[in-house]
Design a protein that fits this description.
Elements lengths: L1 H35 L2 E13 L4 E6 L6 E2 L4 E6 L1 H26 L3 H33 L5 H30 L3 H26 L2 E3 L4 E6 L6 E2 L4 E18 L11 E6 L4 E12 L7 E2 L7 E2 L1 E8 L11 E4 L8
């Protein structure tokens, strides 16, 4: 009787061990298969940073993290007194250049023109006297009363008077005509240059107001009020919530012929719901990405691909960083 009981106990022990081993093997099988068939990714979003072209001190921040902003909204104000000083300098230079241009366009003053005309009239009177004197001396020379020296001196004075009249006439014409065309263009060019400097400074003044360039949500604030920021330093990061997508790392044997435009279903644990997604980007992640050998001795390496897909419909409550799970592997649908 004890022998029968002993054999029965051994049988029960063996049977229990077989049952436990079967359960463990079954669980392991399910676990391995489920792991192989699960692809996990996360939600990402397009974002941009609002930065300034000029250095300055943060005077005001008009948004907080989580705020929704629209294109054109002012998110921060920078105090840059140096820019205002440069504007005053540029305006002074523009005013001086405009005055020079006005003077060049208007020509000489009335008093200068009248003075030049008086000198011209005086030169003409001198020419008339020199001409009469030359004729008298020439007549006397012909009669042999005066020497050739006297005649030559009278002739030289007459020619000098002619040149004096010509020079006085040129001065009068120049006073009437004003500045040369080249001088006028040069003066106007200086005015345009000064105006360009003012426009440049005005663009810097506009940069003291940091503007959102697209709708989105404020996700990060970097400086505090009163802190100094350099040119190009980020001030606010804005996420464009209308441009979200999911990124998945998929080994090539799990792609199952996936192409751009294919749709699949992904589970969002944070929302406890499934959403439809459409593929728009597939790219090899390169040799540095994770890979897996198909065989310990030979075979080929299974590379990893980056798959990006956007939700087909707008999903309320979907936020960047949320997990996305593809259960049962990829089964693309057109």
């Amino acid at each position: 009787m004890s022998i029968i009981r002993k054999h029965r106990n051994i049988f029960l022990i063996v049977l229990f061990a077989i049952i436990v081993a079967s359960i463990v093997a079954f669980i392991s099988y399910l676990t391995l298969n489920s792991n192989d068939e699960v692809i996990q990714g996360q939600v990402e979003v397009s974002e941009y940073r609002v930065s300034s072209k000029i250095p300055g001190r943060i005077q005001e921040i008009r948004v907080r993290e989580g705020d929704t902003v629209h294109r054109g909204d002012t998110v921060a104000v920078i105090d840059a007194p140096e820019v205002n000083a440069k504007k005053a300098q540029a305006m002074g230079a523009e005013e001086g250049a405009r005055a020079l241009s006005d003077m060049a366009q208007a020509g000489a003053r009335r008093e200068m023109i009248e003075g030049a005309r008086d000198l011209w009239e005086k030169a003409k009177v001198g020419l008339d006297i020199a001409h009469k004197t030359y004729e008298r001396v020439q007549h006397l020379y012909d009669e042999g009363v005066v020497s050739a020296q006297k005649r030559d001196e009278a002739e030289a004075q007459y020619e000098a008077a002619q040149k004096a009249v010509s020079a006085a006439k040129s001065q009068y014409d120049m006073a009437v005509n004003g500045a040369r065309e080249e001088e006028r263009r040069a003066a106007m060019a200086q005015v345009n240059q000064a105006r360009g400097a003012i426009q440049e400074v005005n663009s810097y003044i506009r940069e003291t107001y940091q503007i959102a360039t697209a709708d989105g949500q404020v996700t990060s604030l970097y400086p505090k009020v009163g802190e100094l920021v350099g040119a190009g330093s980020p001030i606010v990061t804005i996420s464009m919530m209308d441009d979200m997508w999911g990124t998945f790392n998929v080994r090539e044997e799990m792609l199952n012929g996936l192409k751009n435009g294919h749709e699949f279903t992904a589970y969002v644990p944070a929302l406890d719901r499934e959403i439809r997604m459409r593929v728009y980007h597939i790219k090899d992640k390169g040799a540095f990405a994770s890979w897996q050998a198909t065989s310990g001795t030979g075979g080929y390496d299974q590379k990893t691909f980056e798959v990006k897909a956007r939700p087909v419909d707008k999903v309320d409550g979907l936020h960047p960083g949320m997990s996305l799970v593809i259960r049962g592997g990829l089964h693309p649908e057109k």
